[in-house]
Hints:
The protein has helices at 3-31, 35-46, 61-81, 84-97, 100-115, 120-129, 135-144, 149-177, 186-216, 227-244, 249-261, 272-299, 303-308, 310-332, 343-351, 357-368, 374-402. By secondary structure, the protein is mainly α.
Amino acid sequence: MTSVEIAKQDLFYIAVIILAGLIGGVLAKKIKVPDIVLFLLIGIVLGPALTGLVSVPATSTMNQLILTMGACYLLFEGGATLRFVVLKQVWITLLVIATIGVLITGAITTGFAVWLGIPLTTALVLGAVTCSTDPATLVPIFKQIPIKDRVAQTVMSESALNDAMGTIATFAVVAFVMRTGDGFSLGNTLKDLAWESGMGIFFGAAVGYGAALLMAHNHIGFFRTSTPFVIVLAVILAYLGADTIQASGFMAVFTCGVMIGNKETFGIEFEDHEHKYLEDYVGNTALLMRMFIFILLGSQVDFSLLAQYLWQGCALLFVFMFVARPLTVFLCAGPDRRAKWTVNELLFMSWTRETGVIPAALVGILAGMKVPGVEVVGAITFIFILGTILIQAPTTALLAGKLGLLKSQQ
């Protein structure tokens, strides 16, 4: 197939995804569920397993570009909604749950996987890949459902912070399993975590502050009329810049969003109409990213592989949702006297634990590395993605209402 034919085919896929996504978004509003749920189901219908209208391989450049840029942009959007005043209240919980909590979740998943008959090395990789939450899934949910600020912002912040820990844990385990490099070392792992997270925060903050100055400062706001382009450029520069110095690109774009979202703290402000214009732009662009990410993920579901590991995956999903996550939340957030979490808040955070883009991307990378047992890891990871998005995401609003955590109930 020539490059022109490939380009035409990709354009067709783009058109199908946008059309299907628009229809899915309308239906999601009518039946009052997060749009990502319908996007995922639409992707399954459009994929090779059913209609074959969309066939974008997980290892293709187009897929990797969409997943990377989409996850970055949704992280940026999530960061832009956070407020320093809220983060000051819950920073201890965030630090503990995004580090120790990731290890607890991974250890429990690994232990039960071994008990179900999965080889230890494969179970270790599975526990590491699935131990982090997914910002691309959680951010849209909390944008659509008006949850109490500190709960929503804690969960969104955790989803950004624990990606670095989950990624580092994954490659440390893979090094051990494949006996490459120095293998697993707690000291090296902690050192890598500190570097990736710390430099990601620093680089993202610098890019975010610089972008805010160029967009809104009274004297040097040269690009005040071109804010959408500055936003896209800031997201790309934050991710690539941090990645170049081997820091967490996802942490950088999240921090970039936090800085721009809190620019008033630094004396940089938009006019009301400018703020509304930028908010609409970011919201619409984030919707487009959600369409592409979750429709593509759905289209790549391999049903034959899922069927092969279905019972083990479902059993682990049950443990994941009802044992690993609740234990992690209550052990890590419960003792935080500064935040003073209520039981209802802890129960809600225990339930909001979707798996999505980041674990799926890790599976793709490990497949390219030919990690032993990656087909088992991939199948069960997709069961986690399908299960958490199709079960937990649609019930988020209902649970929040029952627990009295909706903003309208304050």
